[in-house]
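We treat protein structure as text, and this decision shapes the records that our systems exchange. We quote a single record here, exactly as it is kept in our systems:
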Amino acid sequence: QVQLVESGGGSVQAGGPLRLSCVASGYTYRRHCMGWFRQAPGKEREAVARIYTAGGQTYIADSVKGRFTISQDEVKNTMYLQMNDLSPDDTGMYYCAADRLCGYIRWIRADFDHWGQGTQVTVS
């Protein structure tokens, strides 16, 4: 059974950094791509970044490009989201997800197969 566990969220002042982690288990890590999504109160879930675990190719949403970086440690089955220069607009619940297909449309629509419980990020 696929399990995804996020950590690293918290409260931070505007301009500060945070690093989120997502540990995957229950499946062969390289057979799924992984992504980060976020959801602010009253808003739809938004795609933030994704990574092809087999080759390491990454994609970053325009809204966070230049500030957020997605990476992975295949040995640890862990994906990361380094967030710099945070603003109050970045506040929300951040989720990691895994998907076998990982196409652009599935990512943009937040239509991945497996999801973690989320970790809260609050920027003030």
Notes: DSSP finds one helix and eleven strands in the chain.
